[in-house]
Write a structure and sequence with these properties.
15 helices, two-stranded antiparallel ribbon, 46% helix, alpha/beta
Length: 376
Amino acid sequence: MRIDLPGGPYTLREPVTWTPPGKPARSRVVYAAAHVVADPLGDNTPGSPAAVDWDATLRFRRHLWSYGLRVADAMDTAQRNMGLDWAATRTLIERSAREARAFGDPATLVSCGAGTDHAPDARSLHTIAAAYAEQIETVQAAGAGVIVMASRQLAAAAAGPKDYHQVYGKLFGLADRPVILHWLGEMFDPQLAGYWGSRDVAVATEAFLELVHAHAAMVDGVKVSLLDAEHEVRLRAALPDGVRLYTGDDFNYPSLIKSGSHALLGIFDAIAPAAAAALQALDAGNIALYDEILAPTEALSRKIFEAPTYHYKTGIVFLAWLNGHQDAFAMVNGAQSARSITHLAEVFRLADQAGLLSDQELAVHRMRSLLAVNGL
């Protein structure tokens, strides 16, 4: 099958069939950070409240669970701080946790982001901690696990590491089970520059480790998205026993998972079938097969997450549309317009090379339609 893409004709590879493994990986704990599906008939223009297609959104979570992956919900992949308002976020948390009960324990199968984005005017450490507390209570009431997200408000208000320790120390006291801490780099959100009290990553890491060691009993793991593989390996070695490192490095995840990191990744939304197969190979000690499966997905991920990295959600949703998980290439906040047609065409090509176009005829039809809309 051929398609004319910007840059010339492209011949698709032989299709790949991925079979759900029927069980989660044994050697790693793995979360896919899931996107939300916008209602194509809703007013999802920039600045409008999010209009979500709840049936398609929950169906996609069932797809991820069917491949043995856990779901990290209401995270930046779901457009937190980029169009998904708190009303929609709260509904997402509640519905996702309820949906998980058909597959098992929601506290195991889904963990949700708790932050402060519903309180943009919070300025004091007290009001920021109170905003965090409200969202943590919402997640726990739903029965899901808690992921403590990085806070723009705290990044703006904190004078140094002690302020972060003060706020997070209060949050540990509210949790009914160990939580995941999320360190999101400024390439994903420029307003988080200097998180943990310093723009010097080494200094910030020292402050972060001090916090984790002081509260190790209440930390399930730390999710680090700094796109720095060497830093992640050093941080992983410095964590207390029993605290997991969940890689959030969408550039280097194959080598990091292979060397010992667990995972909480936005790219696993798009590559769930391949990720599940690779993890089963890792469990079986078949490193060659693991590498063979994930190598082409890494090239795809690097394209989707290229600068400006925070627009990666567009590529994630684009692939969900190509693969028939949703009826329209539409996003809350109109974010489908954040990437160029040449970028999306390359994502199409790399997804095919990774064997991740589940129905090539549908994908080609939809790609041709998008090209036509763009005058190509």
